[in-house]
Amino acid sequence: MRTTIKWSRRLALLVAPPALAAAALVLPGTAAWAWNDTVVITVQPTTTQVSTPMTPAVVVHVDQSDGQVDQSYNGPVTLSYAVNPIGAPEPANNTVSAVNGVATFSSLTFSAVGFGFELQASDSDNTTSQPSSPFNIVTQLLQCSPGQNCQSETVSSAGTSGFVTAPASQGSNVITATGGGFPQLSCTKYGGVISFSVANGSKVITAILDKSTIQSATYANWKHSKFFNICWGSPTPFTTLNGSTSAFNPANNEYEGLLPFCRAHGGTQPCILRQYQTRNQGKHGKHGNKCNAGYVVTTIAAPPGDPRISF
Predict the structure, then answer these.
(1) How far is 150 from 64, CA to CA, in rounded Å?
(2) Contacts of 216 (CB under 8 A, 6+ apart)
(3) I want to staple 49 with a disulfide (CB 3.0 to 4.6 A). Which of 10, 15, 141, 152 is the partner?
(4) Half-sphere exposure of 194 toward its Cβ, with a 13 Å CA cutoff?
(5) Per-residue pLDDT tens over the stretch 91-121
(6) Residue extents of the structural domains in the chain
């Protein structure tokens, strides 16, 4: 006896003697045997520049229960956020049609910067994958050739701006620069948060606080010799301005504190090489006063890592 049973988009063929069919309790219009596909992200998302297609492309497999690709599936596969720390909009081009069970997202783009995103994939039956590896969406991602000095563009967030410079290295290098996309640090007083990373080697960061933010701060508490502290966030602990070890902030999952000054660049401790404040040329002369405050420019020596900086 041969019985053919339909199971949604998956077709199950059961060839069995009457006794086995009875044992399986086959009822008219029901399935005696079926399996559920699984959805697997096989090429993980990686840190990508905002509004630029993610490369390499994310790839998703719709697999049968035996782990083999379900080549009969040619339906839609959708990527959505499993973890979205800043409430960013869903990425563009996040639904594609699978071809023989394989979905390739060659035009996946993100419109908002941020850190620690994770994706999940689902098929037409709403079967959902495990979350992807974490990744970031940055303002700029720059590939540096061996022997090439690299400098990012200037990025900005809420009155704070800056850029990063990486010295030439023997191998290739990757630097990223991001304005915003991260909550204020526990020691932030003025402006926004900017973030930089260099894949290989140390870096020098120049952070700038704009004059409108400075003026609002100095009106409240003006001092001609006022120093603007640098608030630093890092995945690893460091020594702070008062000599203590940086405190861990569970809200940001980072160590945070104020940076000390240093004499030279080259150590494993982040520190401030120089800070100066420009003056606008107004009727009070080049020395200016609180009405003529310009920008605060700070140069920071930074070891390898992925820091956040604010004032």
Answers:
(1) 47
(2) none
(3) 141
(4) 28
(5) 999 999 999 999 999 999 999 999 999 999 9
(6) 1-34, 38-137, 140-310
Q: How is 17-82 classified by DSSP, letter by letter?
A: -HHHHHHTT--TTS-SS----EEEEEE----EETTS--SSPEEEEEE-TTSSB-TT--SEEEEEEE
Question: CA–CA separation, 144 vs 175, rounded Å?
Answer: 8
Give the pLDDT band (50/70/90) at residue 77: very high
Q: Which CA distances in Å does 126 have to 38, 39, 80, 131, 200?
A: 10, 10, 12, 14, 41
Range of weakest confidence among 127-131, 173-177, 191-195, 219-223: 219-223
Entry pTM: 0.80
Query: Measuring CA to CA, which residue among 293, 144, 270, 139 is closest to residue 215?
Result: 293
Distance in angstroms between the alpha carbons of the first and the last residue of the chain: 79
Helix locations, 146-299, DSSP H:
211-220
38-137 fold: Immunoglobulin-like (2.60.40)
Which among 128, 58, 133, 48 is positioned nearest to 93, based on CA atoms?
Answer: 58
Q: Among residues 183, 176, 300, 200, which one has the least CA distance to residue 252?
A: 183
CA-CA distance, 300 to 267, in Å (whole number)? 12
Structure tokens of 132?
């992807």
Q: CB neighbours (10 Å) of residue 271?
A: 21
The CA distance from 169 to 6, in Å, is 61
Angle at 117 between CA 115 and CA 120, to 5 degrees: 175
